[in-house]
Amino acid sequence: MQYPFDEPNVQTSKKEPDLQERLAKAGSLEELREIHMRIIPMIQGLSASGHSIEYRYNMLNNMHDVLTRRAVSLAYDAAKKTFGEPPGGKLCFFSMGSSARHEQTVWTDQDNGLIYQTVRADEVEYRAFAEEFSRTAVQYLAEVGYPLCQGNVMASNCRWRHHEEDWREQLLFYLNNGSEENLKYMMIMLDTKQVYGVPALLFRLRKWFVHELHQRPMILKKMRELVTSHEIPMNMFGMIFTERWGKYSGRFDLKQGVFAPYINSIKILSVLYGNEAQSTRERILELNEKGFITLTETEQYLAVYDFLLELRLKHSIGLAETDDRLDYHLRLSEMEPKNVQELKRIMKQIKAIQKQTKKRGPSFEQSTGI
Amino acid sequence: MKESTVMMFMDSLWVMVAAILVIGMQAGFALLEAGSTRMKNSGHVAGKQILSFAIATIAFWAAGFGITFGEGNSFFGASGWLMHGDSKTFDSLSWANVPLSLKFLFQLAFVGVSLAIAWGGFAERAKLSVYFIFGTVFTVLIYPIIGHWVWGGGWLGKMGMQDFAGSTVVHLQGAIAALVATLLLGPRIGKFNKDRTPNLIPGHNQVYTVLGGIILWIGWFGFNAGSTMGTADGFFGYIALTTNLAAAAGAIGAILTSKLLTGKADIPAMVNGVLAALVAITAACAFVEAWAAIVIGAFAGAFTFWTSVYFERKGIDDPIYAFSVHGIAGILGTISTGIFASPRLVEQTGVGKAGLLYGGGFQQLFVQTIGVIGAAGYVAIVSFILLFALKKLIGLRVTPEQEISGLDISEHGSYGYPEHLDPAITQKAN
C-alpha cells in the first residue's frame, strides 16, 4: 500500500537554495544525515540576516519534518521488503513532544508512536509488520541524527505502538487510573503530529481522547495540579538554583527548570478550555482569540516563549562540537549579565503564569473523584 | 557532713554525669556517620567508633593526659605519665573540686570526640591499620599539645584565650586532621567525574543521621555545661541555655539556607547546622549573652551549609562534611568571643577580656585569632607529616576492589546489612 507523501511547505532562505534541492532529492540515510548536519549553518545564516525567532523555528522544524518523514518513509519501504507487501491495514507513525509542537531545536531526540488499524483476521500478521516497521523507523531516525529517547517514548516500545482499539484501551486505563505516571503519559499524548501514514487514524484517536478527558474533570484537575506544582528553580531573592551534583553540577537546567513548566502550563490551559491547537504559539493565540487571556497577557506569554526559544536555539547551536547534544544545562557564569537578568525576569513571569493557570479553566468544585 | 564535702560530692556527681553524656556522644557519632555513609560500609563506620574510643582511652591514660595537663612548660606537659603524680603534677586542673579519676574521665571524653571528628575525613576508604596508628599518635602528640596550650597552663591560656569547652581544642583539631586526611586520601571512587563535577553519594539512612544528631545535641549539655566541673553557683544552667539556644538557631539557620540556596530544605543539612552551631557555641557558651548565642548558632548553621557546598565544588570529598561542621564552625565560634564576649560573663569566668562589641577593643579578637592559627597550623603540620609518612610506608587507602566491595566485607569479613548485600545469606536462611 502506498501513502501519499505530503511535502511540507518548506520556506528556505535564499542563502541556502542548495539545501532544499538536496533535501528533495535525498534518497538514502547518509544523504539525510549529511543534510541534518548542515542545518546549523542554515540557522546561523538566518540569525545573521535578522530573521525572527518564529521564522527561524519554522524553518528549522520544517526541515526536521521533512528529514523525519523521509527517514520513516525509507523505513516503511525496508519493512515492506522484509515482509513483502503488507497485509490489509492502515497505520500512522506520529511524533510527540517538541516535534509535535513545532519547536524542535537543532539537536533533538526521538519521541514517537504508532497507531494502526486492521481487519481482525489479519491482526497478528499486521502487528508483526507494524513492529518491524517501527523498529526500523526508530533505527533509521537514529542514523539520520535523532538519538533514541532515554525515556523510551518511541514506537519501538510496545507502550507507544498499538492497534487503534488497544490505544483506546490503553488511554482509558490512564484516564481511569490517574496516577502521576499515567498523568504524565496523558500529557505526552496531548502533543501528537502525523509523520507518516494515514493522519485520520491519529486525528480520530486524539479527538476521542480529548473528549474522554473532558468527561473526567478530576483528571483534568490533577493534570493542572501536576503542571502547576512544578517549582521554578529560583528563590525569593531572584537567585537561580543550579544543579548541585552530577555532570551538570553548577549549571542551570533550562529544559526542566523553565521550558517544560512553561510549555505545560500553556498546554494544560489550552486543553482545559477545549482548544485544539497543537503548537505552543498557536495555543497562546487561540487562547486569546477565544477570549480566555487578554491581549496584554498574550503579548507577555509570547515574549516569554520567544525568549526561551532564543535561549534554547543559541545553546543548541553551541553543542555542535560536543558529545552531549541533547544537554539543556546552561553555565550562567558564561552568559552575559543582561541575559541572566532577563532570564530571572522571565522566570518570575513563568511563576506568575503558573499561578494564573492554577486559577483558570473550568471550576472543578462539583467534580467527583475517579 | 561538712559543706565542702557536700560540694565535692555534688561536683563529682555532676562531672560523672557530664562525662557519661559526652562519652555517650560516641553513639551519636556512630549513628550520624553510619547514616551518612553507604550501607556497604555501615558496620565498619559504626564499629570503628568503639575502636577509636578504646585507642583514645589507653593512649590518653598512658601519655596524653600527662602531656595535656601535667606539669611542664608553655608548650607541653612533661609529667603525669600513667596518671601518676602528686597534687602539683596536675595543678592546671586544680580549680576543679573533684577526684583526679573523674577529671581524667571527663577530659578523655573530649579526646574521644575530637578523634571521632577526625575520622570523618577518613570515611569509606581508609585502611583499618591507619586508625590504630593515627588514633594513637593523635591522642598522644596532637590533641594534648593544643590542650596544654589552652587548658594546661600553656602559652595560649596565659594570653587569655577564651575556649570554654573546646571549639578549637576539640573540634577544630579534629576537623583539621580530617581535612588533611581527606586531601591525602583523595576522593572516594565515583565522587567526582572526569571534569571534577561532584556526584551525590547519599548516606544510607537519614533516620540514623537525625538520631545521631539528636544524641549529639543531648550530649553537648555534658560537653559545655559539664565543663564548669562544678555546681556551686549554678552557672552550668546558663551554659546549658546558651548551648541550646545556639543549636536551635543553627537548625533553623541551616534549613532556611538550604532552602534558599538550593530550593530544597535538606534534612542532613539541618542536622549539620545543629552540630555546627553547637561547635561554634562550645568556645563561647560561658562568655556570651543569650541573644549572641542565637546569632552565633544561626550564622554557623547557615554559613557551614554554604561552605560544605563550596568545598565539594572545589573537589574536596569530605564524606560527612567534618571540616565545615567542626572546622569552619570551630573557627567561627572561637573568633566569636572576640566580638561577643560580655564583660559580666568574662568577669564571672575570669578568662580573657570583653569583646569588640562591648568596647573591649581588638585585644581579645587578636588572641582568639592567634589561637586559631596556632592550633590549626600545628595540627595540620603534624597530621600531614604523620599521614604522609603512613601513605608512603603502608598506604592510607584500601584497594579499589576493597573500596568497591565495601569496608564491611573487605576489612571485617561481614556486612552490616547482610540480607541486603549478600543474597547468599538470604537464600540460605530460606
UniProtKB/TrEMBL annotation, chain A:
Cross-referenced Pfam families: DUF294, DUF294_C
Protein name from the UniProt record: DUF294 nucleotidyltransferase-like domain-containing protein
Residue span, Protein-PII uridylyltransferase N-terminal domain: 41-177
DUF294 domain: residues covered: 218-359
Signal peptide start-end: none
Automatic annotation (TrEMBL), chain B:
Compartment(s) of residence: Cell membrane; Membrane
Transmembrane segments annotated in the record for this chain: 12-32, 53-84, 104-123, 130-152, 164-186, 207-223, 235-255, 267-284, 290-311, 323-345, 365-390
Membrane topology note: Multi-pass membrane protein
Entries under Gene3D superfamilies matching the protein: Ammonium transporter AmtB like domains
InterPro entries reported for this sequence: Ammonium/urea_transptr (IPR029020), Ammonium_transpt (IPR001905), Ammonium_transpt_CS (IPR018047), NH4_transpt_AmtB-like_dom (IPR024041), RhesusRHD (IPR002229)
Keyword Transport: yes
Assigned keywords, A-Z: Ammonia transport, Membrane, Transmembrane, Transmembrane helix, Transport
Taxonomy, superkingdom: Bacteria
Annotated ranges, domain Ammonium transporter AmtB-like: 13-417
Annotated PROSITE patterns: AMMONIUM_TRANSP
Family: Belongs to the ammonia transporter channel (TC 1.A.11.2) family.
Protein's UniProt name: Ammonium transporter
